[in-house]
Amino acid sequence: MPFSKQEFLDNLNDPKKLFFSYAVKISSLNFTLLLDYFVEKADDVFFYSEPENRISFLSFDSLTRQSFGFTELDLLENMVELLNNKLISNHSDYSGYNLPSFILSSKFPVKRTSEEWKQFGDVDLIVPKIILYQNSDTCFLIANQFSESFVRQGYFNDFLEAQAGLIYNLETKLISKNNNSSGITIKEEEDELKQWNELLGKLFTKLPELQIDKVVISRRVEGEINKDISWERIIDELNRKYPSCINFLYKSSGSVFFGSTPELLIKFDQRKYSTEALAGSIKRGISADDDKSLEIELLNSKKNINEHNAVVNFITSALEDFSEIIDYSRFPLVKKLPNIQHLQTSINGTLKSDVNILSVIRSMFPTPAVCGIPKNKALKLIEETETFDRGLFSGMIGWFNNDGYGEFFVSIRSALVNGNKLYAYAGCGIVDGSDSIEEFEETKLKLKPILSLFNNAD
Fold first, then answer.
1. Model confidence at 257, in pLDDT bands (50, 70, 90)?
2. H-helix or E-strand containing 195?
């Protein structure tokens, strides 16, 4: 059982206790084969994959899960600082691998309560007990635990070897479910397009009245699962179809949130960072010439360029106070995914010394790509307009460690499984010049990566 909040704080405040994070190289494992088992057996599971970079990790069970409200982020930063001050680690023995230690998630910051999202906190810090980490052909097992300050080094070596042996033994007994297809029945909303047109018609009037340049409005599609899901197959298919995306699964108690997001929030390489603006979209073409024509149309679309530039300006402004250097191109490129293409601007920089990466994230999140401009006005309009709880959709998930490395992504192209229900989400940016039919079609494109995983939901 993970520590309660009080037990965790007691360990942090006990001068005899230290926080140990130890890693050891192990033989390669089939993470997605193990995933089905741990989703069934463990309360807290997190899977993360960058297929193009051949990086993935799987954590199961937690030393603790600490939940914070949206207004309690100072408490989160203080807790992480206390953890780091108590940390004893051998991760520096494996320089160049940037081993993960902690997982952080945040819901989209509109305060709502709903049954389907109740098993996730507004902001959750997870300290896993065990992490399996794969980088190219090198695999690690990482264990986190509190222990007395006088504990001998050999204790951790013995513990890690025992854990590795248990996992190897488990892997040999598991049977692949990769051929198991899953099905869902989509709940059809009567007159959904008509309701969408009416909703956007009202927004087109409100935007100038409220002096809002852009607001991101989302749809939720509800489905009923009619066959057990093979998470091995789901994640393997996402890795195959979307190798340039971050493919993820995040389980809390009986709920599973998963997806394939193309949108990086920010990546830290000690004082160096990289991020991107990803806003402005168009469909893929049915032929190479058609696809190129659509790309040119996107690059010359005043509506999409204005939407994209607003995101670039927001991100660079948010990073300005933390940065010594910010560098980015003045002209966007086009990022192509199997079902959609986006305007993309890469942004790189160097942080000032002694900058807390959690403070940087607070300044950036949520970006206009999932919220709007100005942020606070857009958040209020979303709260008044949307009739469902976004939860972690368009929220933020990522990992970090004590050495200044971390990667956080915007959790779009995603869905929640709760019991036998599936909730899939997609949003679009509404600005002056938006067309309600085109925006509805855009949400359908963005829903496809998830719904196409189910054999009767293409």
1. very high
2. helix 192-210
